[in-house]
Amino acid sequence: MSFVRDLALQTERLRLLPMTRGDLDFFHATNNDPFVRRYLWDDEPVPLHVSSDVLSGVEAAFGDAGWGLWKLLDNEGASLGYAGLWTFFDEPQPQLLYAILESFTGRGYATEAAMQVVDHTFRTLSFDYLDASMDVGNASSSKVCERLGFELHDEREMDGKPTRFYRMYADKWRSARGSLG
Fold this sequence. Notes:
The protein is α+β, with helices and mostly antiparallel strands. The protein has a single domain (3-177), classed as 3-Layer(aba) Sandwich (Aminopeptidase). Helix content is 39%, strand content 28%. A hairpin with a 4-residue loop joins strand 3 (69-74) and strand 4 (79-86). Helix 2 packs across helix 4 (48-65) and helix 5 (109-123) packs across helix 6.
């Protein structure tokens, strides 16, 4: 699995490591953390087989397409959550996703990790745009998108819940951050 080394990302305070099936215990515990589960999993308990199936898909996506979910580690090696790209609602391409354990919120980690994932999306994957969707009530996730420069693109009901769709275009990202080479 050379993609683990090849697709690792770094920020000033975080290491983003591609998740593999070896991260199942952490991934499953994070998914079932009440703070994460509330919006990401519609507050439903996540069975182990679902977490396992998602990680199998993550490994395949990294191997095939260069995107997936990255485990977030701070400079001391603490695991704070995960961020990356994943498919939702039969959209034509994966969306931005971030899940931070509550004890690590309020410090800018979600924004920092998401910024690195967005940069990877436009620089390496050459997407023309990137969407992020969230429940209307998830104000914290909306604020992360807005801080990054995403704009509200659509609001519609998905799976019986009012959902916001934010969008960032690659050309806007490039102009805000200089050329992406």
